[in-house]
Inverse folding.
């Protein structure tokens, strides 16, 4: 079955960088969009970035454009989120997710359990 396992979170200072990894297994993902979401304490889940597996087209929320880079490695079945110039407001649990491109909605079908990112000032 499909599994998404995040790693790479941690505690860092503002202005530093982290790279999150999402190891995907259970099927091929050529027809999927892989996304990163985050949820800060007491707040709703927020879309961060996504990459279309087939051609690496990317999407970003405005608050991370120019700072974060999403990518995927076909050979490793892994999605990355390179986070640069981190800000305290980036503090959240970050979740990896996947959705079928053929879906008529933007709902994501599979989710990881999250990895904590904490950015101190």
């Amino acid at each position: 079955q499909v599994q998404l396992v995040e790693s790479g979170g941690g505690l860092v200072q503002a202005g530093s960088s982290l790279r999150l990894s999402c190891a995907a297994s259970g099927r091929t993902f050529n027809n999927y969009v892989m996304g990163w979401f985050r949820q800060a304490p007491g707040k709703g889940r927020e879309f961060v970035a996504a990459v279309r597996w087939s051609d690496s087209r990317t999407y970003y929320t405005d608050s991370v454009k120019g700072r974060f880079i999403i990518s995927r490695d076909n050979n490793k079945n892994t999605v990355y989120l390179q986070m640069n110039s981190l800000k305290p407001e980036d503090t959240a649990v970050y979740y990896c997710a996947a959705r079928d491109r053929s879906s008529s909605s933007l709902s994501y079908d599979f989710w990881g359990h999250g990895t904590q990112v904490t950015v101190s000032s």
Notes: The longest strand covers residues 92-100. The chain is about 0% helix and 55% strand.
